[in-house]
Design brief:
This is Outer membrane protein with beta-barrel domain. The protein is mainly beta. The chain has a single domain (33-246), classed as Porin (Beta Barrel), CATH 2.40.160.20. The chain has helices spanning 2-24, 54-57; strands at residues 27-48, 61-73, 76-91, 95-111, 124-145, 153-178, 181-192, 206-207, 211-212, 217-246. The strands form two sheets. An eight-stranded antiparallel β-barrel has the order 1-2-3-4-5-6-7-10. A two-stranded antiparallel ribbon has the order 8-9. The longest helix has 23 residues, at 2-24. It is elongated, with a radius of gyration of 30 Å. The two termini are 35 Å apart.
Length: 248
């Protein structure tokens, strides 16, 4: 019984204190609400499956692309993508062209989906950006030019090194299909920042990781499978302020 009376007096005193505070500070008052969320820092490794179809779309072309991403702070992911490109074109009697090179992209993705309160799923819908860089070596082993006025010309162009820099905007989804396996889709718009064709005798057919070397803009689609490796988890405090109206 005494404990109950003590608790009642404490509650009454708290109410009286809040009432006095409201009377002394009329009007709208900011109220701070803090919440703690659990963030999983998983390393997600991906392989672009859409590159497998490239030899059927462009005979003589081979591409391989992989990626890695990790959540740095809530809903913000750091991303690294890299790959290798090879192309060989042989048109009998006209020219023989060979190129190979590598590329990498670095950037950030912003997730717009709310987190799973049970921490069981890792789906994200995101938009982001990438900065890309490619190095390509190309060789024209032979070429033949037919000219009825000046005569035919045969020749070759030795190996040349080409570099490309670009900026791209990305939007996509990564959906969990198993405990540590995701599938993902993304669309990309790219803009070339330099002019690699100005430093070569032959414009590159393909800039690795970008697209056609004759274009300033390129659009692409990726379909990938991802494998997540759990590393560690951390807690983040989210600070929010709301306004409460105190009426006298």
């Amino acid at each position: 019984m005494h404990i109950g009376h003590a608790q009642q007096k404490t509650d009454t005193a708290a109410v009286q204190k809040d009432t006095l505070s409201a009377a002394e500070h009329p009007g709208s008052q900011p109220v701070r609400h803090d919440s703690v969320i659990l963030v999983s820092h998983d390393l997600r490794l991906g392989i672009d499956l859409s590159r497998i179809a490239m030899p059927f779309l462009q005979p003589g072309r081979r591409d391989v692309e992989a990626s890695a991403d990790m959540q740095i702070i809530p809903n913000l992911y750091g991303v690294v993508e890299l790959g290798y490109h090879q192309m060989q074109i042989n048109k009998s009697g006209l020219f023989e062209y060979h190129s190979h090179g590598y590329f990498y992209r670095i950037g950030m993705d912003k997730n717009i989906l709310p987190p799973d309160p049970n921490h069981q799923r890792h789906d994200i819908a995101y938009f982001g950006f990438r900065l890309g860089h490619a190095v390509l070596q190309q060789t024209v082993n032979s070429y033949h030019i037919t000219d009825t006025v000046w005569g035919n010309v045969d020749g070759s162009i030795p190996r040349q090194t080409v570099q490309g820099f670009w900026l791209e905007i990305v939007a996509g989804l990564k959906i969990q299909i198993a405990k540590y396996v995701d599938l993902g889709w993304s669309v990309r718009g790219r803009t070339l920042l330099n002019h690699p064709e100005r430093k070569t005798n032959v414009p590159p057919y393909v800039i690795p990781g970008f697209g056609k070397g004759s274009n300033r803009q390129a659009f692409d689609f990726n379909y990938s499978v991802f494998f997540r490796i759990p590393l560690f988890q951390s807690h983040y405090t989210i600070h929010k302020k709301t306004t409460s109206s105190l009426k006298g």
